[in-house]
Design a protein that fits this description.
2 copies of one chain form a homodimer. Chain A is α/β, with parallel strands linked by helices. Helices cover 35% and strands 20% of the residues of chain A. The first copy, chain A, is built from 18 helices and 19 strands. In chain A, strand 1, helix 3 (58-69) and strand 2 (74-77) form a beta-alpha-beta unit. Chains A and B meet through helix 6, helix 13 and helix 15 of A and helix 6, helix 13 and helix 15 of B.
Amino acid sequence: MSDPTGREAAQMSRRSAIGIGVGAVGLSAMRGAAHAEAPGGDSASVASVDVVVVGAGFAGLTAARALRAAGHSVVVLEADDRVGGRTKPGSIAGETVDLGGQWVGPAQDRLLALAREYGVAVYPQFTSGNNIVDLAGHRATYEGETPALGPMALAEFALVIGKFEALARQVPVLRPWEAPGVEAIDAQTMETWILANARSSAVRSAMRLLIRTLACAEAGEVSLLAMLAMASSAGGFNEMVSTRGGAQDAMLEGGVWQLAARMARELDPAVVLEAPVTAIAQDETGVSVWAGRRKWRGKYVIVTAPPSLAARIAYRPALPALRDGLMQRMPMGCVIKAHIAYARPFWRTQGLTGMVLSDSTEFGPWFDHSPVRGATGGLVGLFTGKSARRWAERSPQARRDQVLKDVAAYLGDEALKPIDYIEEVWAATTWQRGGYSSAPGPGVLSAFGPALREPVGRLHWAGTETAEAFSGYIEGAIRSGENSAQEVARRL
Amino acid sequence: MSDPTGREAAQMSRRSAIGIGVGAVGLSAMRGAAHAEAPGGDSASVASVDVVVVGAGFAGLTAARALRAAGHSVVVLEADDRVGGRTKPGSIAGETVDLGGQWVGPAQDRLLALAREYGVAVYPQFTSGNNIVDLAGHRATYEGETPALGPMALAEFALVIGKFEALARQVPVLRPWEAPGVEAIDAQTMETWILANARSSAVRSAMRLLIRTLACAEAGEVSLLAMLAMASSAGGFNEMVSTRGGAQDAMLEGGVWQLAARMARELDPAVVLEAPVTAIAQDETGVSVWAGRRKWRGKYVIVTAPPSLAARIAYRPALPALRDGLMQRMPMGCVIKAHIAYARPFWRTQGLTGMVLSDSTEFGPWFDHSPVRGATGGLVGLFTGKSARRWAERSPQARRDQVLKDVAAYLGDEALKPIDYIEEVWAATTWQRGGYSSAPGPGVLSAFGPALREPVGRLHWAGTETAEAFSGYIEGAIRSGENSAQEVARRL
């Protein structure tokens, strides 16, 4: 049986201490409504709701909010000791920042609407000055969105991106597996495509680095179809890699994680933390959902966990082969995110934006992330793919040293003297095991994709991987939550 | 606490009814030795052994047998209601056959030794007569191992296989990730390699069909490195695809599954069925292993479940990122196996072996599997990869109709009148979720491979995927079991 325990209370205080303020969570209100109507349960009493939502990230919270607004009762079961999923607050030099998902683009209307609703201000990514690019041994500075690759390479780069965009336009956003010639497209890696379509080492290197930064996977791991589908879903490759007007256009003051915390507070006490769902059983009248010995009963269940983690739940009856096969084949990307605080944004006085795109560092790319107010400076950056794997098991001190060394190589020795540092090794977190999302390998989307969104009896799927647009983004998680809530509401 | 229950007893009778005769299994003897020394356990008493083995397939049973022979106490926890893993008995026309792994090659010395030990006779695959090949619209018959592709295609086929074998020889059996140029090799699918190295449609088609039959995955799904490693591990591509002298050389009278049943009987009562392991925790003095509420305590644990199923156990502390990442990226292949019984082996009178290799059927390839004694005939064959996905969710009747239709197209209308039929949809079994093994996609083995065999504290890995030779075969499972037992015994 679920009960707010002393441990949960302690964690709530801890959360308040770092400024999240989710509020009291637990099952206090639900206990009043609980009744032991579920067959075969071994709990003394079973909480019963219309819809059980698995996961308190943006997808799950959005779905629960929408269902409740439509008059349905919900419970949101979260494995972790916090809400937000792949968004998470962290504290650095007195500021609260996003340790996970962070940026928002102008086309991401659901996320922007949510920020407006909760009165959280949006401010632009700092882009005044020169970016630095260092690819295939050629280092240069440039303004704006197009990396300075040298005139020849730049022309080829434009051509290659153009080819990719043209292919992406042929991939249906909702059903990438219905793209013309899909088998041949999905039978190759991005690396194979790059080798066949780019000749200069600078363009090949740029493409590999961009793919790795977008997918948190190497070009040699990820399917061409998966990357095309990602671009199609996000409005194009240029939109994905761009700052101004693109997916890295802006951020939320105090962090995007706040929106999840606010939704959870609204849903309180229907959000249950530290309730990792272990089993889901369906029968003719509803679903039973277990987190260890605790059990909930609902008419429907929405699983918002990413496929590779949803695979770790025991389903009764067993899932169809295609769905199980899909969940065996959608690994999370590999990523570590680091924030660095400095006494001042010293790169700005050198006319630099702080942004560096290099193929000769372990860490990177990184971006200016100085606080909106105050005089301090901040950078935020990533280890992705191969680098994330290499550095995930190293000591925090070793990682920090590498980050500072890499940054100093481009922004100067002042980079070696941070006033604070914070990081999140997403590849090693128990309940995410990677990020940002899943970029499957060849042969997966074309063959197993049809199982991605298809409900299985009373079981519906949500989460950014299932989004009808902006899959892989917070925006996609929100949209998937809305969508699954509509699907289920139609059946209630 | 674990107890032999009425349900278990009922299942034991059922097993005896189909002739497995594993004998009484349970914890009856262990209960005497149980003591509640484990910290934090919520069971009244906890069974304590030297080594907890997870999985009662050939790897787990071999490991347990070796450990016990060395004087150590063991318990083998099996999720399913039977032993044998990806081997399994089935009854057809009064004969007991293998619904899973079946063949044995002359180089598979551990499996052959086990058959000798238990007095199970080995008999050769029937190969007298003509095989039929039908690729790229060209149908022909041939004797022996080399498919009749037509003279031009045949020369190219030999060249392509030669190239592949040469590459495979450069892939170290134990450490494929150390092959020269490994990143480039692992950045492409088999399909990409086939397109680059074979020109004729017959050779391309032959390669695709052979890869699919070996890996239970399409050439467009599986990495070139994974296929090279598989060949390297099995003694070469030719050895893998050959009957006489190759991996399909012979079978065991009554089925290879018997060896698992015999090992389990020897280990009785240390084999616990229907005990799906849900969590494994390590501490300084040992390991705790839970199957739901039942708990076992050991000094070490050997997990023999295939990586994609081992991923579904909760580990405390959480596994290293590289190991978890690997388990997210080693999906099981997709396969359905079917046996058909006929009043007589009518193809033999037409001078045919019964073996058909065709790219224009859903089912196939299939082989003669007539009983050693008696006048009846038998065929055995597979749906693999794409076909297995397509047919896994269809009705048994629809599958059977398709199988008979496909067979009749090559062996004649007598094929439409079987006297019995039996099948196993491995892609849909709860505790295997596919077969024969895992053939990972690009970028997996090269990057995550080093975590495949590496113990994590007191946790060791076995299973055919980890074998130092014959990975993917029963032989590999046995070798991995022996190997893990030695690893652990050195620490006891």
